[in-house]
Amino acid sequence: MTKLSKAEIDHALQALEGWALAEDGLSIAKSFRFRDFNAAFGFMTRIALMADKMDHHPEWFNVYNKVEITLSTHDAGGVTDKDITLAKFTDTLV
Ligand code: HBI
User: Is the CB of 53 inside a 6 Å radius of any atom of ligand 1?
Assistant: First the structure.
């Protein structure tokens, strides 16, 4: 996996809703809110199944109905197409 340049990440993020590049340029993140814990955890479960299929796993934080997701590709030391693909997938679920 090739690490994307800042210009490539900015371009990819234009096609996404609410995802932002971290200040250090090494990850993208988005915060989601749901009606309750059941909805939040259902969302996380669907992502977990896809993440494992992709062998690409999110960093995330959940409290009740809030899910914060950070995506980066550790093996590449930054953002790659895999992060963009997983971000797009999460957005199809909401
Ligand atoms: N998930 N986000 C992320 N980044 C990785 O580089 C990564 C991963 N899941 C599994 C994985 N790499 C494997 O290729 C091994 O490095 C364990």
Answer: no
Q: Give residue 37's pLDDT.
A: 98
Block residue for tokens 């909805």: 39
> In what side-by-side order are the strands of the sheet with 20-21?
20-21, 28-33, 66-71, 59-63
Three-class HEC string of 1-68: CCCCCHHHHHHHHHCCCCCEECCCCCCEEEEEECCCHHHHHHHHHHHHHHHHHHCCCCEEEEECCEEE
**Overall pTM surpassing 0.85 (yes/no):** yes
**Given ligand 1 and candidates 4, 54, 57, 85, which is best to mutate, with the most ligand atoms within 8 Å of its CB?**
57
Q: What separation in Å is there between the alpha carbon of 62 and the centre of ligand 1? A: 21
Tens digit of each residue's pLDDT (9 = 90 or more) over 1-28: 899 999 999 999 999 999 999 999 999 9
